[in-house]
Specification:
This is Copper chaperone PCu(A)C. By secondary structure, this protein is mainly beta. It has 1 helix and 11 strands; from the N terminus they run H-E-E-E-E-E-E-E-E-E-E-E. The N and C termini lie far apart (73 Å).
């Protein structure tokens, strides 16, 4: 009898704890779980690094923030932006704070704008190949994406001085 009461208490505690952690107060999904990546693609390259682009759409009711990612093809995946430097030249640099996809909105990853940078590539990426990237969000959510590799020459950006040793 005593064992049944202990078991019932353990089950009740598990139910209460699960209700508190599974999606918050309303059972709604975490913000990033509502994000999709449409038309993902990456620029072809033989060595070094490349960028991934596409359209991030957030069907949720809360903002979602991309903070990075990972890929079996890259040593690291970072959120980058292209912005005018002090000399007016478009400069690529890490984007502090990540990329916010507004609730019910979208955010385009574009050449010459915000993008995911695949760095320290382990193999060439040829046009027509696919590259797997896992997009990481501030809330810990991860979204797997398969991006098609395409020919692309760049958007006239330069790498920030003292950046990652590229350029």
């Amino acid at each position: 009898m005593r064992d049944n009461k202990i078991t019932a208490l353990i089950v009740a505690a598990a139910v209460v704890l699960t209700g508190c952690t599974a999606g918050g107060d309303s059972g709604a999904p975490t913000p990033a779980a509502a994000v999709t990546v449409e038309d993902p693609w990456a620029a072809a390259t033989d060595t070094g690094m490349t960028a991934m682009f596409g359209n991030l759409t957030n069907a949720g009711d809360r903002d979602a923030v991309v903070i990075g990612g990972d890929s079996p093809t890259a040593g690291r995946v970072e959120v980058h932006e292209v912005a005018a430097g002090p000399d007016g030249v478009a400069t690529m640099r890490p984007k502090l704070g990540g990329i916010t996809i507004p609730a019910g909105g979208s955010h385009e990853l574009t050449p010459g704008g915000d993008h995911l940078m695949l760095m320290d590539l382990t193999a060439p990426l040829r046009p027509g190949d696919d590259v797997s990237v896992t997009v990481l969000f501030e809330d810990g959510t991860r979204i797997p994406v398969t991006a098609q590799v395409r020919d692309f020459v760049g958007a006239d950006e330069e790498y920030a001085p003292g950046g990652h040793g590229h350029g």
